[in-house]
Amino acid sequence: MKPPEGGFIVFRISMAGKLCFGRGGLPLAFAEQQNPAYFMHSSYVSFGRRGALIATVALFSGLASAESGKTLLNVSYDVSREFYKDYNTVFISHWKKTTAEVLTVNQSHGGSSKQARSVIDGLEADVITMNQHNDIDILNTRGGLVPADWAKRLPNNASPTTSISVILVRKGNPKNVRDWTDLGRSGLQVIIPNPKTSGNGRYTYLAAWGAGVTGGVSHDAAKALVTRIFANVPVLDGGGRGATTTFAQRNIGDALVTFESEVPLIKNEFGDNFEVIYPTRTILAENPVSVVDKVVDKRGTRKQAEAYLQFLYSDAGQEIAAKHNLRPRDAKVLAKYAKAFPKVSTFTVDEVFGGWTKAQKDHFNDGGLYDQVINAAKPR
Q1: pLDDT value at position 379?
Q2: Torsion sign, CA atoms 7, 244, 284, 113
Q3: Exposed e or buried b for every residue in 183-206, given b needs 16+ CB within 10 A?
Q4: Residue 121, exposed/middle/buried by CB under 10 A (0-12, 13-18, 19+)?
Q5: What is the mean pLDDT of the chain?
Q6: What pTM does this model have?
Q7: Alpha carbons 129 and 74: distance in angstroms, whole number
Q8: In this predicted model, what pLDDT tens digit does every residue of 301-341 receive, in sequence order?
């Protein structure tokens, strides 16, 4: 069966070790309908654009205990696959050791805004783990799935980790890219995911704009820079992973803007053919998380879902984050991995743009400043 590009397939593993496939929660094999007890558990499996199996995590302890355990679905943004794959393994082991309950954690990944809309449209996420607050706020304003004060329920604005936007160039930096202004030079191609569908793309747009403003230029001048940058974008992929594929595998573009946490993954997968450029100023990307209240109360998984998110703040959770190049909130863990996280001048969405709600309204809603930028960004 050919996996859907950039999507997921649901599978179940039988006692005999055989796989039966289905799509998006539709009924699976006829055999399952005839003998449901034959199947141990189910998981979501994410597939990359090349059809590669990305991540699934489950813990087996025999049919009886597996059937008695709970299943969680973590709906997350595009480039968090590998982190949560490792994190889930550790948390599942921790949960079984402390509660004796077998737990299965499923993953779903894609452009952050698309993922949020999927949850609003009915994808039953027990937890949502995003890279911007706006994609969780919308679960309250459009779906009533979380309370308005969801971000107050966990420390650090419900963001256990952060990252920053950086620029990845080809080995030797042949185009001499050093800062955001260089991305607006004529003759340069820049790969950026679509800000309408991707948190990575929105952060890139706001990083370039905010770097200008915090560096002393006017908002009009910052808008002009961002317009020049987007005039150099040959294709707007739907998410950060798609943009990475365009740049690293398809060899399109001179520079890729991505999260710092994505850089080691790119080098591991595509070779050490790239260099990372830390801009003079860049944006701090908080990675907020929340239980999806209506789902966990319906499915009876609140206890497991809350523990899953709280464990992100534990020493073990923070260590896993640091090993995946996500900046931990814990000061001791951050100090331990200081060499991996160069000090750089950062600003937040709140500081420059008045928060995510205002940034969304001013820049990314239909007819906003981003649409003006795209309309003005003619091919050069």
Answers
A1: 65
A2: negative
A3: bbeeebbbbbbbbbbbbbbbbbbb
A4: exposed
A5: 84
A6: 0.78
A7: 7
A8: 999 999 999 999 999 999 999 999 999 999 999 999 999 99
To 5 degrees, how large is the angle CA 256–CA 239–CA 13? 125
Using alpha carbons, select from 149, 136, 127, 141 the residue that is nearest to residue 293: 127
Q: What is the pLDDT of residues 168-210, one digit of tens each?
A: 999 999 999 999 999 999 999 999 999 998 889 999 999 999 9
Instruction: Select from 351, 340, 290 the least CA-distant residue to 135.
Output: 290
CB 165 within 8 Å of CB 345: no
**69-83, 88-102, 306-320: which range is least confident on average?**
69-83
Angle between helices 219-231 and 369-376 (to 10 degrees): 50
Residue pair 191/175 in contact (Cβ under 8 Å)? The answer is: no
- Name residues whose C-beta falls within 8 Å of residue 289's C-beta, 6 or more positions apart in sequence: 127, 128, 129, 130, 154, 158, 159, 160, 309, 312
